[in-house]
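Two entries, shown back to back:
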Amino acid sequence: QGAKYRGSIHDFPGFDPNQDAEALYTAMKGFGSDKEAILDIITSRSNRQRQEICQSYKSLYGKDLIADLKYELTGKFERLIVGLMRPPAYCDAKEIKDAISGIGTDEKCLIEILASRTNEQMHQLVAAYKDAYERDLEADIIGDTSGHFQKMLVVLLQGTREEDDVVSEDLVQQDVQDLYEAGELKWGTDEAQFIYILGNRSKQHLRLVFDEYLKTTGKPIEASIRGELSGDFEKLMLAVVKCIRSTPEYFAERLFKAMKGLGTRDNTLIRIMVSRSELDMLDIREIFRTKYEKSLYSMIKNDTSGEYKKSLLKLCGGDDDAAGQFFPEAAQVAYQMWELSAVARVELKGTVRPANDFNPDADAKALRKAMKGLGTDEDTIIDIITHRSNAQRQQIRQTFKSHFGRDLMTDLKSEISGDLARLILGLMMPPAHYDAKQLKKAMEGAGTDEKALIEILATRTNAEIRAINEAYKEDYHKSLEDALSSDTSGHFRRILISLATGNREEGGENLDQAREDAQVRPPEIADTPSGDKTSLETRFMTILCTRSYPHLRRVFQEFIKMTNYDVEHTIKKEMSGDVRDAFVAIVQSVKNKPLFFADKLYKSMKGAGTDEKTLTRIMVSRSEIDLLNIRREFIEKYDKSLHQAIEGDTSGDFLKALLALCGGED
């Protein structure tokens, strides 16, 4: 951004501190206070100007302005206004003092402040803390924290991160090797290496380290941190990495999480809006808009009320364009984020792997014993079936038949029931036959489960689709295409049949073709006379159902560049019903398939009641493909692990089996 100012609050033109001090005094005089006048003055002045108002107020009235504001105001509004009146370093010092005072520690507050501040801000914070509380900040943090978490906080507190933009390629390679050896290649983890490198190297240097780390190891540094570290130390290191990559993006994410779901984390919201209003609020707004497809302004507006809301909206500095549309700078941010995601080829990993020392004979006998006689040993069944790969399960089925002359699936059906039976029997089927059965069930009886049809057909590879077609024909003596034709209609049917052919192109991107494909857009964006919605759906279908994933990613990038719109939002706006849902699923799958499934899992468990069918279908079908990646996306987006969500939403043997498939707590 260079030296360009990116704050939302500016010096007020024609500023007169005495006039403002008098207006504030008048607003607080007598019975009640004029909150509107207070918020209007304080949110329209820069921090430097507010300090001058404090001085004038004391000179004119012999009183402390902050003390008077505290007396007159209450609650969140008071906290926000008083926060704005303090110099930034003193505001940070007060937040940290509150975080470590009393019983318990607010680790999230410590992490947010110490992971995000520059060297200069850190030095000012330490001095402000000493001045305000006559205490040593480092000593207080040491007294209130422990272990590696404490060590990293102390390193950050020194404010000695290198600031040289000239990067040594040799040192980058050395740091990549040191981090890899300290984590992935070591039994246990050498936390000191992580602390030294992430706590001291320059931002420019570390960005190159992260790029090289991905190329060398096949996984982003965040994945290694999650795998090697734990607790508050892990959260701190992840925050440091996020701030190295992009401090505004870190704060955009913190703001979103502070307001999403039930309840608002007001302390976090206030702290960020106050501390970033004169630094990078415009960047935060752009990234927020890009990442969450809604403006920061609209989210604050819907999530807060009264003078508190008005003050926050003034700090936000303006509403960005309507949902789905990017203002020009944000379109560029979106495009750059796409570029980065296209570079990051993350290896897909399942949670279920072939068992070592696999013995189908022993497993078949153990399963027979678990089902013989009175009662059933569900624990043994769960333990064996969730810890074998699908190929190994097929061997167990064959061995079971050879030994006992019985069909394992039939025996399991007679011994277990309900959600557990659906899950275990699903795991026992070859993947293509399982998907074929799910499609058949979605089309059986009265009504059609369109969501299941979309989920399966929009996300499977060509090879998987072809295998499903064969399995469907073998199991139900009817082609999948015929079944879809007789159970769906119109454009939705055409989309599903196109996907069910398994003929998606498999090459890379073609830039000229991508630019041509990106020009398929609604009339009001294209500035042409209103077109036929049917022909628009047909054109979208020919591109979304047939082009390769790498090519479509490029199309989406070009679409943003040409229109300032995100293709997903355009679909949601222009289309409806099952056609819209199918296209959105394809786009989300192309953008980030594990995230698509993470969202589906979250929705299957949120609110009253659980959608066990969707939960089971995804856990079964993704367990050997990308469930580990889905877990990472889940915790990243929803701030809780998939393991925790399952634990809170299911019970009994079904819970045990799901947790075994989940493969661990993140």
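entry 2 starts here
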Amino acid sequence: MSKKGGKDIVFRRWGLRSNSKTLVNVIRIFKPNTQNEKQKTMAALDYHAEERRKAEFDVEEMKIVWAGSRQAYEISDRVARLVASDPVFRKDNRTMLSRKELFNDTLKKAAHAWKRIIELRLSEEEASELRFFMDQPAFTDLHWGMFIPAIKGSGTEEQKAKWLPMAYKMQIIGCYAQTELGHGSNVQGLETTATFDPHTDEFVLHSPTLTSSKWWPGGLGKVSTHAVVYARLITDGQDHGVHGFIVQLRSLDDHLPLPGITVGDIGMKFGSGAYNSMDNGVLRFDHVRIPRDQMLMGVSQVTREGKCIESDVPRQLVYGTMVYVRQAIVADASTALSRAVCIATRYSAVRRQFGSQNGGPETQVIDYKTQQNRLFPLLASAYAFRFVGEWLQWLYTDVTQRLQANDFSTLPEVHACTAGLKSITTSATADAIEECRKLCGGHGYLSSSGLPELFAVYVPACTYEGDNVVLLLQVGRFLMKTVSQLGSGKKPVGTIAYMGRAERLLQCRCEVERAEDWLKPHVVVEAFEARAASMAVACAKNLNKFPNQEDGFAELSPDLAEAAVAHCQLIVVSKFIEKLQQDIPGKGVKRQLEILCKVYALSLLHKHLGDFIASGYITPEQGALANEQLRLLYSQVRPNAITLVDAFNYTDHFLGSVLGRYDGNVYPKLYEEAWKDPLNETVVPDGYQEYIRPILKQHFRVARL
């Protein structure tokens, strides 16, 4: 092969034209003379520049839409850059640290974050953003995300006044101790007891069995000084069910566990780095006494005489905290999914394979329809989850106001809605991160791609705050109750309002005649409504065949879960379409969101085509037309793909991926990252003399049996 031929192969693989200026740059990439020259060369290259020039919309305005408001965007952007520029928050070596090193690194970052929050006098929103962009699971997540909200949601005014100031100043550090070794989803099955002693005016907390050990609470293992502990309230021999108690676990002087308390870490978890930065813990009580006023008494109270009474505050107020936590989980889903999609999209534009014509560059992987068919629905899902998360924030405000006015009418619907959305968004995101890893080919399996650790960090979301299948079954029960009440005069409201039109939805037929008819929002919404109503009504009919309803629920649980998914996917599609009815400024911004909305809806229709056809609303031919329209929409997404992920506004530090670099300069950075691995600290491996050399030289002693 001639020198020129070899050079041209290099250019074709990189998608570059052969000229002297490019040649100099390529040579410098492969043979940098100095470290400084290498870094300067890498900084000068931008392989996504041409992609960004293709954009048909104002990316700066899209960033504001993604953030939720201009103020939110400005705060997020400022704090993200603050974290990225601080060497203490370095994380590129995280997967190479031992467990102890990783945990110590987490403590250092959490302490530094708190120091910066105080020094810079950050607002509550800015402080929350700083912890978010630190991007390392830590005890502070549970302190701010669970411990404080639990006290705010279930404590009396006096308890809030006592405990919250200390918690806000981090003079105490708290966690949320509910899950036990033997019980997770079944909260009513918890075994830890809190028995009232009227002689001393105290509760006695005890772990009567091995399975009653608290197991999994983040921050519990090594850091938390206090916990909101959930235990069975017992007074005068009577069990009053599970209630919350504020319990001090460790001394504020030397951090040692208090008498009667056994506490520690539960051990390594899935993945390298990932959630191993968190001290998930085990906790046991041996007749530990706490004052009576450390029971959270916002809803239920125990008097000095030991009588358990309901407070004046409605029990339903605890739903406010539940909605708050679940909307935060849905928001996290959009973030995790968008990170994975950003990495996969940028790398798909850099990577070239096959298709070289007459010595020209190979084809960008993102131009293959199979890649688009897998990637673009995930991009659309990221935006869809973002907007349904925004709607859940509104719902939280609405529910809070209603609860304060003693209006509990929407609670069943809100409970089902938030449970279902938590389930489908986290499941879809976990699957999507893994799909993005596969979309990146072999390099996606590298730790430096950022995707393996992102997956390992995220998948627990499918289990915590309610197992996803259990949550779907709760939604299924709600749907069955709704169907049973049709015709009784009780009108379904909110996200379940369409069930009031179930009879018509089961009889009407889709009006689609051409592929472009699927671009009409009302056609899409009605198709999803008909599918959801049909599946719910079918389950209800089958349920009525069982003499015992509970036997029916057990037997039909897979069908109920599928009906719940259909209902929740309808909610996401509907809220995306409602978002587009708002005034959205910026050149081409609304147009791109309309395209993504259609991609999201039609990709779901294609994936679950059997459900839609079975509903009787659409025919197989109409389903084929939907898929035809979907392919056309992919072509409209393609020129905007890079800028649509740029709109997430993630720094390279936060993204944590060589493949997802903003400048697309992937290959030199991959090569550089490889040499940072501890195995490459020596040319000859440490075990050479002891293990490899004897094999090569066959220096073995032969023994007779």
